[in-house]
Amino acid sequence: MEQNLTARRMLSRESLENAIRVVLALGGSTNATLHIPAIAQEAGIPLGLDVFDDLSRQTPLIGKFRPASPYTVIDLDEAGGIPAVLNVLAPLLHLDLPTVTGETIRERAASTENLRPEVLHSLEAPLAPEGGLAILRGNLAPDGAVVRQSGVVAGMLRHTGPARVFECEEDLENSIETKTIKPGDVLVIRNEGPRGGPGMRELSIPAAILTGMGLNDSVAMITDGRFSGATRGPCIGHVAPEAFAGGLIGLVKDGDRIEIDIPKRRLDLMVPKEELARRRVNWQPRTPAIRSGFLELYSRIVTQANQGAVLKA
Length: 313
Known about the structure:
Layout: H1 7-10, H2 13-25, H3 32-43, H4 49-58, H5 73-78, H6 81-89, H7 105-110, E1 133-136, E2 145-148, E3 158-166, H8 169-177, E4 186-189, H9 204-212, E5 220-223, E6 235-237, E7 257-261, E8 266-269, H10 273-282, H11 293-301
Parallel strand pairs: 3-4, 4-5, 5-6
Antiparallel strand pairs: 1-2, 2-6, 3-7, 7-8
Helix pairs in contact: 2-4, 8-9
C-alpha cells in the first residue's frame, strides 16, 4: 500500500458516485445529500443534487432497515456487510477504483456473496425500481428538496393538503402536545435551514412524536431543516432556498394548499403568483436566533442546503 495515501487521492467523481449508489440502494439517510456534496466541494469536484436524483432513477432499492423495515444493521452485517452490497451492485459501480486496503472495488465486491437474500435483494428482484432518495423541485423548492421515498407509504407518495405553518421546531412541538394536528395536514417548519437555524437541526423529535401519534402515514412534514436517518413517512427536508434567505417557504400561510408528487419529483405551493407577490412586499426575515460569535458569522457565510451547507466567505 502507498505510504502517502490521503483522502484527496482516493476521492474522485466516480468514487463519490459509488458512495451515492450504496446510500440509494440501502434507503440511506437524507443527510448524505449534505455530506457528500460538502466532501465533493472540498475536493474540487462539482456534484449537485441532480446527481442524486439521476442515480436514484437508475439504482434499484435492494435493502431497507429500521425504522422502514424490521431489519437492522446487524442483519446487514450477517448478509455480508458492505462488500455484499458491492457484490449485488457490481453491474452499476465503477469497479476499478482503489480502496484503502489496496484492493480494487471489483476485488472487494468479489470477496463476499450475499448471505441473506431476504435482507439484500437482487437487482433482478429489488424492493423498488428506484433508490431510496428523491429530489423534489417546484415553486416551493426551486433549488431542490430531499425526501427518503423508501420510507413513504404508497398512499402518501402523492398528497395535497392544507399547510400548518410553524416558525421553528419548538412551535411545532407545542402544537403536537395539544393534539391540534389532523390527518391530511402538511406541516411547514421554517427558519431551521443553514442560515436560519443557524445550522440545520434534525427535526427527529417532532417526526418521532408524529409516529407515536400514528400520524406519520397521514401527515406530511416540510422543512428547510433536515431529518435524521431514523425518520419515516413523508418528511421532506432541505427546502432551498430556505425561509431566512427569502425562499418561498417563508411566504406560506396556514390553509394554503401544498401539492406533493414524489413520483413526478414535484413540490408546489398552490397559491396564485399575484397573491405571493403581495405577500413578498411585507415579508421580513425572522429575527436571527443568534446575533454574535461564530454562529452569527456562520449564518452570514454558509451556503444553502443544495450546495452542501458549506462555508464560503
